[in-house]
TrEMBL record:
PROSITE patterns: TPR. Residues 786-799 have a biased composition (Low complexity). SUPFAM superfamilies: P-loop containing nucleoside triphosphate hydrolases, TPR-like. This is NB-ARC domain-containing protein. It comes from Streptomyces mordarskii.
């Protein structure tokens, strides 16, 4: 095919002639100090889709001091979400735009029109939606507009790639969580659920001037929750999508066309070099014409040529001249994008191609350098060299030093390459097995550091990888929470015959992810997948451990009925396993105590204590003693409850386990409150609160605030009780709805005691609405809360404001008998 020699320009087309080549430098991958890999936009997306060169510039979140959770109000059924109180917060102005497209040209009239729409005091639309086929330059135009207009939005710019072109588009709930954090909302104040997050997001944007760039959207349904509300008329959403957004209200719609021949030639020349392109100008025009002037296809073709200095442009032109190949590779739509990646893959040497294929098997948002080394079976230095070479040709991205990610479509292509190669099955299984070993060995080390004296790790499957080593407990926890998504994604990918047991054990090694409340839904999903796979394979040991992990999660999130079912099943499947015999029994004791079935609780906790002692598991023994203390307090045996809590705490002190020590202090604080030794209780509960906060355990932090609220009510300090109750409510979504009901109830009582009758009525109404909606059996704690006088009575009617009974703080109750 002969190229267009006239190099004419189409009206309304676009091009770019920035300086540089197709090879990037990893040193140019970050700008600023605090990159956020979840919000970046990289060369593979900007250059391949738009045809323009753009160094990787991740989304930035300005540093801001952590804000107290009390400064934020969570959305409720009756209350509108409130913005952070100005007196208690620092304004956060996110600056997350990708790199500006240098020397942007073309589309002059369109750019002028859209700039006028974005500039005040014009009647701004709620959204500008730019649509067109993949690779048409939507992102280039949107980024150019955003940088041109950013001075009109002094309160910041948000950015997200919504992944609409791939098979796993971004979940609006997850995106809203990232946006709220970027706007300064603490994690603890971010609610669960798309509707609640969207409401808080809209409230947070009120009064601000923020530009929201929503790139690569799938459809209108995906982006509706992400749009600023009517209360934020100075905010605008700039949207790019392959789909037309005709269903959006108050949206200005824009359609884009392909590049002109002149712009296509300029882009190709930029990549391969001006001199080289001019020498074979006719061949260049053949290449860009074969690419149908689509920037994405041009970019990939030119990079292939640039990396092969011995090739002529004519060689590439002849390769693309085959219509059967060209139609497969360059046709419009998603398949065209996927086929075009073959050009890049075909230029890789064997080591690069192997790395590309195997890394495509990994789940999660990205992968660390050590984890990638485990996948490839290589040392860190060789892995870094290979991955850097893939970054240089835009097949891989590195938004943060030491971490790598694929664009979603490139990952799918890499995975398809792995699946079609000879001996692919064995290669895939070995790679995932090595990754599983890395995660299991390292997670087990984190677990052991957090739980000195706990022998569970000695019962986990052996691994062929030593795992990472950490100097401090903080560094270990930092790793676990940073790798949480990737680690959990590994579990369902490793449920085959040779990896299934290790995958189940990884759930146990990563229990901190369940206890913290950080990833309850993801943990539940993968635990169920592991249990179901083990059940199908009649692997009772692995199924029992997966069920135990699931029951552990359910008990911590207040889903007692489900927890009991899973834990009982675990004991039935493999009650001889020392891990199950001890841990499942211990957790069942917690659950049945919470349900008010004290005889069952005493039996299970007795079994757990015996099993822990038989295994010489001191940390487990301390846990069982603490839970027995809670049981004795529930049964009115206050003195023995305090003694048991002190025994458990003494073991934790000897072992030197900060987080477990916090659990021991928390338990003793409850017992001391029940014994009306309130000042001692305050000391232990306050220290527990500090340790939970340092260990990043928001679920337990919320519970400590709840117990402090109870203690202050018993001490007739209602103002302090209100403060702690509000803090517990801010964290209440992590502990399940029954716990949230408890937090609402104690807050209403504290407010009544403080003389704030109308607010007390409001929270009591919310509590009752929540209780009616749940419709499931009430945990004992809830029954005890409801046994006290309702907050609509005068405060004087309750001489001991607070909760009586098992979890109450009324006058001391005499022992009903010694514990046997």
């Amino acid at each position: 095919m002969v190229g267009d020699e006239r190099l004419g320009r189409r009206t309304g087309s676009t091009g770019s002639v920035p300086d540089g080549s197709c090879r990037g430098d990893e040193a140019n991958l970050a700008l600023g100090e605090d990159p956020d890999p979840a919000l970046d936009r990289t060369r593979i997306e900007l250059e391949w889709e738009s045809g323009y060169r753009a160094d990787v510039v991740p989304g930035l979140r300005p540093h801001a001091a952590p804000q107290p959770a009390a400064a934020f109000s969570r959305p409720t059924a009756v209350g509108r979400p409130q913005r952070p109180l100005a007196a208690d917060t620092t304004t956060v102005r996110p600056a997350q735009l990708p790199a500006a497209v240098s020397d942007f040209t073309g589309r002059e009239d369109l750019v002028r029109e859209l700039n006028d729409r974005l500039a005040p005091p014009s009647d701004r639309p709620a959204a500008i939606a730019i649509a067109g086929i993949g690779g048409i330059g939507k992102t280039a135009l949107a980024v150019h507009l955003a940088h041109t207009a950013r001075h009109h939005f002094p309160d910041g710019q948000l950015y997200i790639d919504l992944g609409g072109a791939g098979s796993s588009p971004a979940d609006p709930e997850t995106v809203l969580g990232a946006f709220l954090r970027s706007l300064g909302t603490p994690d603890a104040a971010i609610p669960d659920g798309t509707e609640e997050r969207a409401a808080l997001y809209r409230a947070t944007l009120e009064g601000r001037r923020v530009l929201v760039l929503l790139d690569n959207a799938r459809d209108a349904a995906q982006i509706r929750p992400l749009l600023p509300g009517d209360g934020a008329p100075e905010c605008v959403a700039l949207i790019t999508s392959r789909a037309h957004m005709a269903g959006l209200d108050r949206a200005h719609l824009v359609d884009l066309d392909a590049m002109s021949p002149t712009e296509a030639f300029a882009l190709f020349a930029l990549i391969v070099g001006e001199e080289r392109a001019m020498v074979e100008r006719a061949a260049v025009m053949e290449v860009v014409a074969s690419c149908s002037y689509l920037p994405l296809a041009i970019r990939i073709a030119a990079c292939r040529l640039a990396s092969r200095r011995t090739w002529t442009v004519s060689v590439l032109a002849r390769k693309l001249a085959d219509e059967r190949r060209r139609l497969d590779e360059l046709r419009a739509g998603d398949l065209a994008v996927k086929a075009t990646f073959g050009l890049g893959y075909g230029q890789l040497d064997p080591a690069q191609a192997r790395a590309f294929r195997l890394l495509g098997l990994v789940g999660g948002p990205d992968i660390s350098l050590p984890a990638a080394g485990a996948v490839l079976g290589l040392d860190v230095e060789e892995t870094a060299r290979l991955l850097t070479s893939l970054v240089d040709i835009s097949l891989l991205e590195s938004a943060v030093p030491g971490r790598y990610r694929f664009h979603d479509l490139v990952r799918l292509y890499a995975r398809s390459c792995a699946e079609r190669e000879s001996q692919a099955a064995a290669e895939r299984e070995e790679a995932l097995s090595r990754l599983l070993d890395f995660y299991l060995a390292t997670a087990a080390r984190v677990y052991a550091m957090e739980r000195p004296g706990d022998r569970m790790v000695e019962h986990l499957e052996p691994t062929g990888h030593p795992g990472l080593r950490f100097e401090t407990s903080k560094a270990a926890l930092d790793w676990l929470f940073a790798e949480g998504d990737c680690l959990l994604e590994c579990v369902p990918r490793c449920t085959g015959e040779t990896t299934r047991r290790r995958a189940g054990d990884l759930l146990l090694g990563a229990l901190d992810l369940a206890e913290s409340g950080a990833r309850p839904r993801q943990y539940e999903t993968v635990a169920r997948a592991a249990g179901d796979a083990a059940h199908a394979a009649a692997d009772s040991r692995t199924e029992a451990r997966a069920r135990s992990a699931l029951g552990h999660l359910y008990s911590f999130t207040g889903r007692y009925a489900q927890a009991e079912r899973e834990l009982r099943l675990a004991l039935e499947l493999d009650g001889e396993d020392p891990v199950i015999a001890s841990r499942a029994s211990n957790q069942l004791g917690i659950v049945t105590n919470g349900l008010g079935r004290y005889d069952d609780a005493e039996r299970f906790l007795g079994q757990a204590l015996e099993a822990f002692r038989a295994d010489a598991n001191e940390a487990g023994e301390a846990s069982a003693l603490a839970n027995l203390s809670r049981l004795h307090v529930s049964r009115g045996r206050t003195r023995s409850g305090v003694e048991l809590a002190e025994q458990g705490l003494a073991i934790y002190r000897r072992l030197g386990a900060p987080l477990r020590l916090a659990n021991g202090m928390y338990t003793l604080g409850i017992a001391l409150t029940r014994a009306h030794r309130l000042e001692e209780a305050a000391v232990h509960l306050t220290e527990a609160l500090d340790l939970f906060r340092e260990a990043r355990q928001p679920l337990w932090e919320g519970m400590a605030h709840f117990r402090l609220a109870e203690m202050h009510l018993a001490a007739h300090r209602p103002t302090k009780a209100v403060t702690h109750a509000e803090q517990s409510l801010a964290l209440g979504g992590l502990g399940g709805e029954w716990r949230r009901f408890s937090f609402l109830t104690v807050l209403s009582k504290a407010l009544m005691a403080a003389g704030q009758r109308s607010r007390a009525q409001e929270y009591w109404s919310q509590a009752q609405t929540l209780r009616e909606r749940l419709g499931s059996p009430e945990p004992e704690e809830v029954r005890q809360l409801l046994a006290t006088s309702a907050p609509d009575l005068p405060a004087a009617a309750d001489p001991n404001p607070g909760h009586r009974g098992a979890f109450g703080v009324g006058p001391p109750v005499s022992e009903s008998g010694p514990w046997n």
